[in-house]
Specification:
single chain, 545 residues, alpha/beta, Purple Acid Phosphatase, chain A, domain 2, 5'-nucleotidase,  domain 2, 2 domains, eight-stranded mixed sheet
């Protein structure tokens, strides 16, 4: 069962008084009986219920579960389901399904076709443009996916070349009318788009405003909607929590912000955490539902006649509680093909709490596959590439491996010096441990061991040869002449996340393969003794500074 979290919000006339006197007059909604809520002084309320998702990252099994949840959301009586709505009937409660972006991921066209159809099947009205939507390498393909989603893609801070197939695909806002009430929904893409996506033809067709310019554009679009008499305005933002907070404080007219990009799981509503106030003192509820389709949110909101939020309830629901419907599984497999079972897991450690700054045995196994299948000395894998995990006691199939490593990059065999390798590992450590969000993440390795501290300092490193013999490397003076063959992908090799210098044609590439590491993982796992274990082996140690 879901425990609702209801927060009363004071009418506008009380804001300044409440702030000045630091008065808290919150009502204990938890004391209300099931199906009931305290009576509001404002009888002319607009009742709404918002089903929201963000950062699903192409997780097909999670999308199947979310589809089930969306169907339940459509079919269930809100007045019976939620201890929130009062003195009203179900036909007076307006329901919406919205997304804050990163539903697509990677370059695999069939996988993204599933994501597009998921938005369509589930009935989402609009989505913000996330950075991973731009993983789709060809603008014509992305345009077709957006069209087939049946969902408006919103990005008021993105400009598109007029000759691009994407021209006209990204709208600034839409107006949705329900029972005579109009709702303005606008969306923004992340201002750091070009830092988060590998350069491709789709990305070269667009430009994205800075966050400062984005905030100005948001206010202009709000003013445009307000000029049309629309006073209930919702922002779908793939800009991250810190930027959402800025937008809330630096604009006026927004009521709700459904966020994404920073993968926050925002339970309930708390003043100063996800309840903020605009320049004119109106409340703005900000929320996100985590990452990778693990959770869905339902935000219930009452607006008064002036379009001000007077009461809100934020519910976070685990997708693990729901089944994958067989008809949807069958429809997905018609698009991607039937998965091949390649192995069986005996035991597996849990995923680390923070994959960006910890060793990850689930990723280590993928790195081992890259090194061995490419007959390389070493493999380098960015931690952010790993988006899933192996399950103890479960079969492993090709679909799961596509979930674990979904980007569909091209594999490359490189010739790198000891110094280049050490510098890349140092960059990942120093940058990630000294960045608030720990981006871009440390490098996972195969054919190496290293030790670092929580200040991001590399303490020791060694090369482990094919006979499992260790060869220490001087951390302070790695050789610029000693060379190793290194397996990685074209994202890393061409300067993605700046582990190496940005260069679309680096001179250290020996070989390029037209497939990604998930295929290598399939081939590698087939050769392992079955069942196999996923465990820590000490190749990467982080100690307290």
């Amino acid at each position: 069962m879901i425990t609702p979290s209801i927060s009363p919000i004071k009418p506008l006339s009380n804001y300044y008084h409440a702030k000045k006197q630091q008065v808290s007059d919150n009502i204990n909604f938890g004391a209300a009986q099931q199906g009931q809520a305290p009576v509001s002084a404002d009888k002319n309320l607009t009742h709404t219920s918002w089903f929201y998702i963000n950062d699903v990252h192409g997780k097909m099994t999670k999308m199947e579960r979310i589809y089930t949840m969306a169907q339940e959301f459509d079919a269930t009586s809100p007045t019976q389901r939620w201890n929130f709505f009062q003195n009203t009937t179900d036909d007076k409660i307006e329901k919406f399904k919205v997304s804050s972006g990163d539903i697509f991921i990677g370059a695999n066209r069939n996988n993204n076709k599933v994501a597009s159809q998921f938005l369509n099947w589930s009935g989402f009205v609009a989505s913000a443009l996330g950075n991973h939507e731009m993983d789709v390498t060809e603008p014509g393909d992305l345009s077709e996916l957006i069209n087939n989603s049946g969902c408006k893609m919103l990005a008021l801070n993105v400009d598109v070349k007029p000759e691009s197939p994407l021209y006209g695909r990204f709208q600034k806002s839409i107006v949705v009318e329900r029972n005579g009430e109009k709702f303005g929904i606008l969306g923004i893409a992340p201002s750091d788009m070009f830092k988060r996506v590998k350069m491709n033809n789709s990305l070269s067709d667009v430009s994205v405003e800075s966050i400062d310019d984005t905030i100005k554009s948001v206010q202009r679009e709000i003013d445009n909607l307000k000029a049309q008499g629309i006073n209930k305005i919702i922002l779908l933002s793939h800009s991250g929590k810190a930027n959402d907070k800025r937008i809330a404080h630096e604009t006026e007219g927004i009521d709700l912000i459904f966020g994404g990009h920073t993968h926050e799981l925002m339970k309930g509503i708390e003043d100063g955490v996800n309840l903020f106030y605009s320049k004119t003192g109106e409340p703005i509820v900000v929320t996100q539902a985590g990452k990778n389709g693990e959770y869905v949110g339902v935000l219930n909101v009452d607006f008064n006649e002036a379009g001000v939020v007077v009461k809100a309830q934020n519910n976070i629901i685990s997708t693990a509680m729901y089944n994958r419907p067989l008809p949807v599984k069958d429809s997905v497999e018609k698009i991607i093909g039937k998965p091949e079972i390649v192995g069986h897991v005996n035991t597996a450690v849990p995923m680390p709490k923070n994959i960006l700054i910890e060793d990850n045995p689930h990723g280590d196994l993928i790195a081992d596959a890259m090194r061995i299948e490419m007959d390389a000395d070493i493999a380098l894998l960015n931690t952010a590439n790993i988006r899933g995990c192996f399950t103890p006691g479960a079969d492993v199939d090709s679909r799961l491996l596509g979930d674990i490593s979904p980007f569909e990059d091209k594999m490359m065999l490189l010739s790198l010096s000891e110094k280049q390798i050490v510098d890349a590992i140092k960059f990942g450590l120093e940058t990630s441990f000294n960045h608030k969000a720990h981006k871009p993440g440390i490098l996972l390795v195969s054919g190496m061991r290293y030790k670092a501290n929580t200040r991001g300092e590399l303490l020791s490193i060694e090369y482990v040869d094919r006979n499992n013999v260790s060869h220490p490397i001087d951390v302070k003076n790695p050789s610029p002449d000693k060379k190793y063959t290194v397996a990685t992908d074209d994202f890393i090799a061409t300067g993605g996340d700046n582990y190496f210098p940005v260069n679309s044609n680096p001179d250290f590439v020996l070989k390029t393969l037209d497939y990604d590491k998930n295929k290598m993982a399939c081939d590698y796992i087939k050769k392992l003794p079955q069942p196999f274990d996923v465990k820590y082996d000490g190749r990467l140690e982080i100690v307290q500074a």
